[in-house]
Design brief:
Shape: rod-shaped
Oligomer: single chain
Helix content: 55-70%
Distance between the termini: 181 Å
Number of helices: 20
Radius of gyration: 63 Å
Largest sheet: 5 strands, parallel
Strand content: 5-15%
Order of helices and strands: HEEHHHHHHHHHHHEHEHEHEEEEHEHHHH
Length: 536
């Protein structure tokens, strides 16, 4: 312990490093400096905890007073590690430690206020963070509540939109339901009656189709009276066999289509049941027709029916005879291109060239349908149609010919001829009236065809409609359009009915003339039975 009191470890180290082992003169020449080396070795270096004390030295406890004392040494140029290392590396290390402590004090002196401020700021930050955490928790609760409210709002809006859509849908469905009821309501009476008749026809379907098949297959060559007697016998036989059929069977009722029949009568088919039955048999049979046509009624009808209308798919009728030199060539072309052919004035023997065509001996060659016409194989068009007529009143065709063709008797009947004669008489006496009647017939046929098309369209749409029928806008629009069309047609029919009644009354005045002409015709026709000369 030097004079002046106790020194700290750091100060002791400085003194120990500063002194020399010998007593020396004071630099100022006044006295001598005590040599504390021996004491330092015993008291400082010999302390086993010396190094530990240096390591664990409380550098934060350095005071300004201590630092000032030590700086007397550190400011000395000789108290520098670079100089001391020349004497001792260990001493140089201690020198570095002292300089480090001084440097630490000066740095800490600057940093300490900042550390204090940091501590204050940290404490304030912790308080602020706690407050922030509370605010964030409150904000989270508010956000969660807001999210829930937004979700409820979205759900409510979606429900609102759905309800609005449902209201719009219900409104549109209600409008469509009114249209549907109005559209179908106008057809209620007619369709109810049709449904009732269809049920009756359905119950008698098996027997009626059996009778129709028999008529088409066997009754073609015979007169109307013979057909009626035969059908009566067949109906009685069906009743015995417990097969239901219509009481008053009619081929026209069973297989006839009113619209199609009206088109035939417009094309100059005699407007009597016998002729209409013949036309139905002609189109319902798979065989080509051979028509007994002494008066030329069937010939005129076919010419008008197959007239080239100029529409797409319409083809010109070829009229040929067996006696023509180009007969076979014309037939080949017609078969190949699907053209209709009218072979007229055939005798009791048909040309053998026709055999393969009548039997439809079609052969597929390379995926193409072909048929033999004469000596040549030609391509067969399914649209090909062949009509054969004969002027003979009572021809005797052999059985082998009858099985190849659909033999039909188109001889004039009293009813049919009377209707034609009435038209001729009225046309001569009241040409404008007959022209008006013909126009009404054509208009009535067109209206019925339009109504039939509308009805078929509606039934088709009802059949293919899926889901709620009120959502089918096409069907509703079609019904609305059909209602307008039906009303227009109904108005036209009412107007036409009045005109037809007027025409009928006028025509009745000429009925006796038509009847007398028809009777005279058959009297003259039967004169050939008295003498063959009268056939000319």
């Amino acid at each position: 312990t030097p004079p002046g009191g106790v020194v700290t470890t750091m100060e002791a180290v400085c003194i120990m490093l500063r002194v020399k082992p010998n007593r020396v003169k004071n630099p100022d020449g006044q006295g001598k400096i005590d040599d504390y080396w021996s004491v330092s070795k015993k008291k400082v270096l010999a302390d086993p905890k010396f190094l530990a004390n240096l390591v664990a030295y409380d550098k934060d406890a350095i005071t300004e007073q201590l630092c000032n004392k030590v700086m007397k040494y550190t400011n000395d140029p000789g108290f520098h590690p670079d100089r001391i290392v020349k004497q001792s590396k260990a001493a140089a290390g201690l020198c570095k430690w002292v300089h480090a402590m001084v440097s630490y004090y000066h740095v800490a002196k600057i940093v300490e206020p900042k550390k204090a401020a940091l501590a204050v700021s940290t404490a304030e930050l912790e308080v602020a963070m706690k407050s922030l955490a509370l605010v964030r928790a409150e904000l989270k609760g508010v956000e969660d509540k807001l999210a829930q409210l937004q979700a409820d709002l979205d759900k409510t809006n979606a429900k609102k939109v759905k309800l609005e859509n449902d209201v719009a849908t219900c409104k549109s469905r209600l409008d469509r339901a009114h249209k549907l009821m109005d559209g179908l309501g106008g057809e209620k009476v007619r369709w109810a009656e049709s449904s009732k008749n269809l049920q009756i026809r359905y119950d008698n379907l098996v027997g009626d189709i059996l009778l129709s098949s028999g008529v088409i297959a066997y009754m073609g060559p015979f007169t109307s009276q013979f057909r009626a007697d035969t059908i009566g016998g067949w109906v009685k036989l069906l009743t015995e066999k417990e097969i239901t059929s219509s009481e008053n069977f009619s081929l026209t009722t069973c297989l006839g289509e009113p619209v199609k029949i009206r088109e035939w009568t417009i094309a100059r088919l005699p407007n009597d049941g016998f002729s209409i039955d013949n036309a139905i048999m002609l189109f319902k049979s798979d065989q080509f027709p051979l028509m007994i046509d002494p008066q030329g009624q069937a010939n005129n009808w076919v010419r008008a029916l197959e007239a080239d209308t100029g529409e797409e798919g319409s083809k010109k009728l070829k009229i040929i005879k067996q006696t023509e030199t180009t007969f076979v060539r014309s037939l080949e072309i017609a078969v190949q291109y699907g053209e209709p052919v009218l072979l007229e004035n055939v005798p009791e023997e048909l040309d053998p060239v026709l055999e393969s065509v009548l039997l439809k001996q079609i052969v597929k060659a390379g995926g193409v349908k072909t048929i033999k016409v004469g000596d040549n194989m030609v391509e067969y068009d399914p649209d090909f149609r062949l009509y054969i007529t004969t002027k003979l009143r009572n021809p005797h065709y052999p059985p082998e010919t009858c099985v190849k063709v659909n033999l039909l008797n188109f001889m004039a009947t009293p009813d049919g001829l009377e209707d034609q004669m009435l038209g001729i008489v009225v046309k001569q006496e009241k040409p404008e009236l007959e022209k008006q009647r013909e126009q009404l017939v054509i208009s009535d046929a067109a209206n019925k065809k339009t109504l039939k098309g509308i009805e078929d369209t509606i039934l088709h749409l009802l059949a293919v409609s899926e889901g709620n029928i009120l959502d089918d806008q096409v069907l509703i629009d079609t019904l609305a359009a059909s209602q307008v069309t039906s009303k227009q047609i109904a108005d036209e029919v009412k107007a036409a009915a009045k005109t037809q009644e007027t025409i009928r009354q006028v025509r009745e005045a000429y009925q006796p003339v038509a009847y007398r002409v028809a009777q005279l015709f058959f009297c003259v026709a039967d004169l050939a039975s008295v003498d063959p000369m009268y056939q000319y």
